[in-house]
Structure prediction request, 248 residues.
Amino acid sequence: TTTDHVVVLDRHQIPESHRDDLERLVGDLAEAGERLAIERSALLPGAPVSPEPGAAARHVDARGADWAQVYPEWGLAGNAAIIIGPRAVTEGVDLRRRCFLHSYNADEDPSGSALETILTAPVVVAQWINCQYYFSTVAPRTFGAGTKTTHNVVGGIGVVTGPGGDLRTGLPWQSVAVGDHLAHEPMRLLVLVHAPRERIDAILARNPGVRDLVDNHWITLLARNDQSPRWHHRTRGGWTPYPTEIGE
Prediction:
């Protein structure tokens, strides 16, 4: 989230038959990183205005390694949703860096095992991230970490403000705002799933930790089948049609 770089490890283990695919992937990742650097640079304090792709990439790379930089990145600020479904669903849509995207095709997962992995791992992590940003924004004195400019690192496990005091929790103010202007809009994570609702219900029944996130409104879970444009909202009482058709 500071450099927009993706490094492919153990490239020597890739079979020769897949080397061309790998090179295309590496090239696509590099291009995506440069484009993302341009988008982030448009918002980062002190970043160049309307930079060329190469200049934006060099800038975010340098500031991510600058220990004096109090605004090294906003790679996760603004996160609002995770979309689980075929990538064609969001193709051509400018999501403004606010959504986690997880490719999923329900037709290729009749047992639901892949969806269960997604709902119990990536969705939970996305909720952690979203929750940390949420509370660091709405209650920064209690759940945030104050300003970076007076932080002292303690034992590699946390920070304190100035020379002492309690370990600070959450995110520093510079991760969610510039001065009094919020860079992060606090909202609970929206989870959009393209899958049969009964499949989701079965997964929630087996995983009470995820079910609690839904039932207690820590996340907003909407689902639909590809055959229907109608989204349904999952609550403690079951599924209800969502009042607004998303995307219309």
